């Protein structure tokens, strides 16, 4: 009988110890720093635009 009471009390204590709350878990958003791009991405289209403009002006 003692073992039955001990097992029941341990089971009750274990279930309340692992019970979660009703509050939602707050997860912090991950901040990702965007890499600073260089201006070389705009350089090639500008050169092509100048070459096309020069070719049109030469005709």
Description of the molecule:
The protein has 59 residues and is mainly alpha-helical. Helices cover 59% and strands 0% of the residues. The protein has two helices and no strands. The longest helix is centred in the C-terminal third of the chain and has 19 residues, at 40-58. The mean pLDDT is 81. It comes from Seohaeicola zhoushanensis. This is Ferrochelatase. Keywords: Membrane, Signal, Transmembrane, Transmembrane helix.
Explain briefly what this protein structure is.
The protein has 59 residues and is an all-alpha fold. The chain is built from 2 helices and no strands.
Helix fraction, binned, reads 55-70%
Average pLDDT, to the nearest integer?
81
By DSSP (H or I, 4+ residues per run), the number of helices equals: 2
- C-alpha geometry: rod-shaped
Strand content: under 5%
Total strand count, please? Answer: 0
- N- to C-terminal separation? 107 Å
Order of helices and strands: HH
